[in-house]
Specification:
The chain is about 20% helix and about 30% strand. The protein has a 6-stranded mixed sheet with strand order 5-4-14-15-16-13, covered by helices on one side. Strands 2-6-3 form a 3-stranded antiparallel sheet. The structure holds flavin-adenine dinucleotide (FAD). The site of flavin-adenine dinucleotide has 20 residues, from strand 1, strand 2, strand 13 and strand 16.
Length: about 260
Amino acid sequence: MQLAQEKQQELMVCVVEKGSEVGAHILSGAVFEPRALNELFPDWKEKGAPLQTQVTGDDIYLLNSESNGIKLPGFSVPKTMHNDGNYIVSMGNVCRWLAEQAEQLGVEIFPGFPAQSVIYNDDGSVGGIITGDMGLDAEGNEKDSFMPGMELRAKYTVFAEGCRGHLGKELISKYALDADASPQHYGLGFKEIWDIDPAKHQEGLVVHTAGWPLDKDTTGGGYLYHAENNQVFVGLIVDLNYSNPHLSPFDEFGVINIILK
Ligand SMILES: Cc1cc2nc3c(=O)[nH]c(=O)nc-3n(C[C@H](O)[C@H](O)[C@H](O)COP(=O)(O)OP(=O)(O)OC[C@H]3O[C@@H](n4cnc5c(N)ncnc54)[C@H](O)[C@@H]3O)c2cc1C
């Protein structure tokens, strides 16, 4: 839309979001790298983007047990784990702010509308999407509020459904988009937002952990980001390559909860 306005070209851009509002389905509390935002809105600070807490430090611990661990010296920390210049943000707030900027540029946003199926043109290319029917009961019968799905036809359709969207899976399979590509790998992640004792709070500190409570055959790790207002974003990610079939990632996170509390 920015380019279209620059070139005084008429353009219609439409976003469908299945959440009740933009940001409703976004996991809050992230360390955010602002490179893309700098390119899109170089004046994001003046525009009031909700990026308040700059990262002040990165600590990485290798944990052996619930009470024992070592802090890795800075030089041995992989480059990708350094967060200089990044921000600790509420992603929900960032997404809501981005939606406002998009609307101001004339983008039409339809929250509460899932893209249900793909429209294919006669030549086999993608021609748009059809949104889901609204007002169906649990058995799929039409209620008084029934509204059939809308066809949204477009020259370009961008699919951004997250890591395992149902339309994305269909498109990957139909166009063999995964041919000659590394297989995707997945993990399970949990995140909670806690109010903590102000005496223990260090705004801007990013902490990552490896090791306990995961065993040596299970990859993943914990994180704890000190945001503003004495809040921390705390959680655990467990890669889905674990070999113990009884491992319950959520219960492992529960162990961390008990120790930290
Ligand atoms: C526990 C955890 C912690 C993380 N922490 C960080 C972090 O600190 N920093 C970081 O950079 N990354 C982090 N990530 C990764 C980050 O969350 C993802 O990389 C990012 O959210 C991917 O963005 P996306 O827009 O591709 O998809 P998503 O954020 O999943 O957004 C997809 C959107 O599309 C909507 N949608 C899906 N299907 C449809 C449909 N059919 N019709 C209409 N709407 C649809 C959804 O409602 C959602 O709003 C974390 C991930 C997890 C799980």
